[in-house]
Design goal:
Layout lengths: L8 E5 L4 H12 L3 E6 L2 H12 L7 E5 L5 H15 L4 E4 L14 H29 L2 E6 L2 H5 L5 H21 L4 E8 L16 H7 L2 H8 L10 H12 L10 E4 L7
Parallel strand pairs: 1-2, 1-4, 2-3, 4-5, 5-6, 6-7
Helix pairs in contact: 1-2, 1-9, 3-4, 4-6
The structure holds nicotinamide-adenine-dinucleotide (NAD).
């Protein structure tokens, strides 16, 4: 199936690590021009080098961007337009959670969670949508979470932000449909990186990998009807599909990539 993503310009926030990395590589394989917008420049350049050797035909570049800073986001989008012209696809992938009971969380954790999981998405959407409206074309895929659909123990504020992404996506899908723009969210369940090589200095997995030992992962798998955990590629495939024209009649949806762990 030709997804017609060759030559399209795709911004992937947080593309230096784990799921974002897999998303950036998946678009590169399709021949898209990919912009990795991340604060970890070193790791982002490693992913870009890998993407540029895949032979997809597009070009992958890195623009260091702190997505919690609206001015940096606007500047990044300006630079992408200068480099590639039209922006066709935005993938909002940056996210962060620190597993902790709500009553034990200091205010700084809530603020960090809201800034990284929700404000960043608002800034990025605000920065790209005007030109998508002008072009009469756009695809926005935001990485939410199963936590945003059904809630999660020790992830209250994170889950609130991820539910916020789903609400934002549905509402903007209603506003933007008339301009040929679709917005959807993808909701991964537990997706453990396969190696430390694939994560950024700022990855939430810097701590998480110690917790998710092989034994813990085996236990977790039993909760999933498909009896395995997700891979970064599972989420990347869903993002690529929703960004393609094969999915042009799908908007305002939240797609679970969770091995059947939720079915709502
Ligand atoms: N991994 C999972 O189990 C899982 C499950 C459900 C949802 N998700 C969601 O998937 C997305 C990706 O998760 P992941 O596990 O790959 O995360 P990760 O922590 O490994 O990667 C996050 C990336 O964002 C970058 N980043 C952090 N702060 C930034 C900032 N201010 N500006 C720009 N970039 C910044 C990091 O450098 C890193 O490259 C997140 O939105 C997460 O909430 C993950």
């Amino acid at each position: 199936m030709d997804l017609e993503l060759a030559g399209k310009t795709v911004i992937v926030t947080g593309g230096a690590s784990h799921i974002g990395r897999a998303i950036a590589l998946a678009f590169a394989r399709e021949g898209s021009n990919v912009v990795i917008a991340d604060i970890d420049e070193g790791q982002a350049h490693k992913v870009a080098s890998e993407a540029n050797t895949l032979g997809g035909g597009g070009k992958t570049i890195v623009i260091r961007t702190d997505v919690t800073d609206q001015r940096e986001v606007e500047a990044m989008v300006g630079r992408v337009s200068d480099e590639f012209g039209r922006i066709h696809v935005l993938v909002n992938n940056v996210g962060w959670v620190l597993d902790r009971l709500f009553l034990d969380q200091p205010r700084e954790d809530w603020e960090k969670a809201v800034n990284l999981n929700l404000w960043s998405v608002i800034y990025c959407m605000r920065a790209v949508l005007p030109q998508m409206v002008e072009n009469g074309y756009g695809r926005v895929v935001s990485i939410s979470s199963e936590a945003g659909r059904v809630g999660e123990y020790r992830e209250a504020v994170y889950a609130a932000c991820k539910a916020g992404i789903i609400g934002l996506t549905k509402s903007l899908a209603r506003e933007m449909g008339r301009y040929g723009i679709t917005l959807n969210s993808v909701c991964p369940a537990l997706t453990v990186p396969s190696s430390e090589e694939e994560i950024s200095e700022h990855s939430m997995w810097k701590l998480g990998l110690q917790f998710f030992t092989a034994e813990t992962q085996e236990k977790a798998k039993r909760l999933y009807p498909l009896r395995r955990l997700g891979t970064a590629e599972d989420t990347a495939n869903a993002a690529v599909f929703l960004a393609s024209d094969v999915a042009s009649f799908i908007t305002g949806q939240s797609l679970s990539v969770g091995g059947g762990v939720t079915m709502i």
